[in-house]
Specification:
Blueprint lengths: L1 E5 L5 E5 L5 H15 L5 E3 L7 E3 L12 H9 L1 H6 L27 H9 L8 H7 L8 E4 L3 E2 L5 E2 L3 E5 L2 E5 L9 E2 H4 L5 H4 L7 E2 L2 E2 L2 H13 L2 E6 L4 H11 L5 H4 L2 E5 H5 L4 H11 L15
Parallel strand pairs: 9-13, 13-14
Antiparallel strand pairs: 1-2, 3-4, 5-8, 6-7, 8-9, 10-12, 11-12
Length: about 300
């Protein structure tokens, strides 16, 4: 796949679009963090592509987090509570009854990546970041936000969104395979499904609707008159195509304009040097060449 964009010299340039599969990205993160873990308290899961699980050191540092970000997380009760999520892959680790592994301690955790960035001191005051995301500076990040999506029976879907920044709702992805699927009857429970989507255009596989996290995020943005963004690696073209497939099924043009895909590479371009260095070393995330976005926009 290729696409054209305008270079800084205003000359049309066509370049191959770099892609990577979920398993390919997991392999890269495994390799990077296997080497990095030698300097930290960490353990490795069983399997051909091991996951690296870090733990806190005696000095109050954590190998899965920037020191400054981790310090702020521990000082903020709501953020600290996020660290308690239990790691679901513990069965693939050596049995240690004295130790509970946590989801955000895994090197592949998109939630940990999100918190490394948005818990960094004064990061929300950076003009470049606010401009990229279209938000006011100085907002307080809310992780694990539950917007409450109305159902036809008067109840609410209390599914969690990864991050809320003011009126911007965010779903973050790293090595996850997709945006989840759900049965037709579960999707048709949503009160605003028909007003928001041309339902016949929503992606399906057999008896399942695909990309249900995106459907929920769009419905949440509609109800709250908010914006909805997906953060992912620019090499995950499978996820990016899923996003645009859902966007194209949205009936209202004004709502479509409040939806976007932002890459970790674009976010890296707005970061201070310490954060950039950490993202490059641990995740292989470096700013896009010349500051150019690698995402074609609707």
């Amino acid at each position: 796949m290729t696409f054209a964009y305008i270079s800084p010299m205003l000359e049309p340039v066509t370049r191959p679009l770099e892609t990577v599969s979920p398993s390919g990205l997991r392999c890269e993160l495994s390799h990077r963090n296997t080497a990095r873990a030698a300097g930290w308290a960490a353990e490795m899961s069983y399997g051909p592509v091991p996951s690296i699980i870090y733990s806190e050191t005696g000095a109050g540092e954590h190998g899965n987090f920037l020191r400054a970000s981790y310090k702020r997380i521990l000082q903020e009760p709501g953020w600290k509570a996020r660290l308690a999520k239990v790691y679901t892959g513990s069965r693939f680790l050596p049995r240690r009854t004295e130790l509970t592994r946590r989801e955000l301690e895994c090197a592949n955790s998109s939630d940990a990546l999100l918190m490394n960035i948005f818990c960094y001191p004064r990061i929300m005051h950076r003009a470049a970041l606010s401009s990229l995301l279209g938000i006011e500076p100085g907002l307080h990040p809310a992780f694990g936000f539950r917007p409450g999506i109305p159902l036809k029976n008067g109840a609410e879907d209390r599914s969690e969104m990864d991050l809320k920044l003011g009126d911007l709702f965010i779903e973050a992805k790293l090595t996850e395979g997709d945006f989840q699927s759900a049965r037709h009857d579960l999707v048709h429970r949503y009160r605003d499904l028909e007003p928001v989507f041309e339902v016949a255009r929503l992606p399906r596989h057999k008896e399942m609707f695909r990309s249900c996290q995106l459907i929920r995020g769009t419905l949440a943005a509609y109800v709250h008159r908010a914006s909805f963004a997906v953060f992912c690696d620019h090499r995950r073209q499978d996820l990016i195509e899923d996003c645009f497939e859902i966007m194209s099924a949205v009936v209202n043009a004004e709502l479509r304009c409040r939806m976007s895909v932002v890459t970790w590479q674009e976010l890296a371009s707005t970061m201070p040097q310490k954060v950039r260095t950490f993202l490059a070393e641990k995740y292989g995330i470096v700013p896009a060449e010349g500051g150019q976005s690698l995402i074609p926009r609707l």
